[in-house]
Design a protein that fits this description.
mainly alpha; 21 helices; globular
Length: 421
């Protein structure tokens, strides 16, 4: 019978530590969720700091490989979390409201994303002295707005009370869509930095993006129709309804992997198609996926990221160069682009600055950084620079969310605390 008993070992011990810490952290976040929304803290920030404390440079409770060595595992975890998160974004608003934001959303996805990739490339080259190919890898990976981190800005009572619906919807939908649509930019960067030819990059981009759109529309439409039939016949109970779209996301993500489509984009498109043909928007009290995903499922990934920080590679960047990189990316990557697009997007100065600042860099950047490492081999400098920006963005945007919401509300109401309509 001894063969059936678990044998304690180093890996089992680390897993138990991680499970204990993540579970405890989740309970704390759940118990203090209301207070956290009014404090300069966020669940991803708490998880990141917890992972750093557990890592070898602090308590040494876990001894995981760094991001440079363990990028493959982080890629799969980030891929799964992104898929579930963009599904939540696609279902967050009624479809007629999504359709009404199509024109400004296209401007954000085409013009703004390209501008952010270009500016980040320039900043990376200037701050770190990188060649064009290496800088382009950073520019493409760091350009998308992260839907997981952006969720704390657009959801919850403070955001819904203070931020206009249009502004919240634009940030949310942009963060969901540009995670998948950043793939052509990443493939272009891979072509510049590695052996992939321009023709091959274009062909692969077309296959992955259009395949994702076709698969997403078909799966979402069919899933929504099946749900409606099941509801009319009474064959589905309220319990499975809450996980129905999560299962749809997993199905689309897996099928995209088999067909070599852009899985994150396919999941987002399937969510929009499902939203269009189902009655999910009429049952907002039952649809709790968004809150659960962005408050709890993000915790394990950020704990892992914190424990896998490549401290040595960070130091090798040079602290002054690292500071210039972080400041440049946070201040130049997005804010000037949104201010330049203020009139085409019909934004007030307040909304342009708000959207320009709150474009956090997180799970989506980690996903593309690890994808580049998988295709070209791990480049310690790229992974170090990219994870440093992700960590600082998590801290800075987490700390500024509550004050930013308060400042926006005060600016919108002339210094009073009245709600924005």
């Amino acid at each position: 019978m001894d063969m059936f008993l678990p044998r304690p070992g180093k890996q089992t011990g680390m897993l138990n530590v991680l499970l204990t810490v993540v579970g405890a952290l989740g309970l704390v976040v759940a118990a203090l969720s209301g207070r956290l929304r009014h404090l300069p803290l966020s669940a991803p920030l708490l998880a990141l700091l917890t992972g750093m404390a557990l890592g070898p440079e602090a308590l040494g409770a876990v001894d995981l490989p760094t991001v440079v060595e363990g990028h493959k595992d982080l890629h799969e975890v980030s891929r799964l979390l992104l898929a579930v998160s963009v599904m939540a974004v696609a279902l967050r608003y009624p479809f007629h409201e999504v359709r009404a934001r199509a024109r400004p959303l296209l401007a954000l996805l085409i013009v703004a994303m390209a501008g952010m990739a270009l500016l980040t490339t320039v900043v990376s080259a200037a701050a770190l002295g990188l060649g064009l190919g290496t800088a382009a890898l950073l520019g493409a990976a760091l350009c998308p707005t992260d839907p997981v981190l952006a969720s704390s800005v657009v959801t919850g009572e403070p955001a819904e009370r203070g931020i206009t619906a249009r502004t919240r919807q634009l940030l949310s939908l942009e963060s969901g869509a540009n995670d998948g649509l950043a793939l052509p930019l990443v493939l272009a960067a891979v072509a510049i930095a590695g052996p992939l030819t321009g023709t091959r990059a274009l062909t692969e981009s077309l296959w992955q993006v259009w395949g994702a759109v076709v698969l997403g529309v078909a799966a979402g439409w069919l899933g929504g129709k099946v749900l409606r039939v099941a509801e009319r016949s009474g064959s589905i109970s309220p319990g499975p309804l809450l996980v129905y779209t999560l299962l749809l996301a997993l199905f689309v993500l897996g099928a995209s992997g088999l067909l070599r489509f852009d899985g994150v984009l396919a999941v987002f498109v399937s969510g929009l198609a499902f939203n269009a043909v189902s009655s999910v928007q009429e049952r907002t009290s039952e649809n709790k996926i968004d809150e659960a995903v962005n408050r709890f499922l993000v915790l394990p990934l950020f704990v892992l990221l914190g424990a896998m920080i490549p401290w040595r590679e960070w130091g090798e960047l040079g602290w002054w160069r690292a500071i210039l990189l972080v400041l440049g990316v946070l201040l130049v990557r997005r804010l000037p682009v949104l201010i330049a697009l203020r009139r085409p997007l019909s934004l007030s100065w307040r909304d342009a600055v708000f959207l320009g600042w709150f474009g956090p860099i997180g799970v989506s950047a980690l996903f593309y950084l690890t994808m580049e490492a998988h295709r070209l081999g791990a480049d310690p400098e790229v992974l170090a620079a990219g994870t440093l920006v992700i960590a600082v963005s998590t801290v800075v945007h987490g700390v500024t969310t509550a004050p930013g919401l308060a400042l926006y509300r005060r600016a919108a109401t002339g210094g009073t605390e009245e709600s924005v309509k």
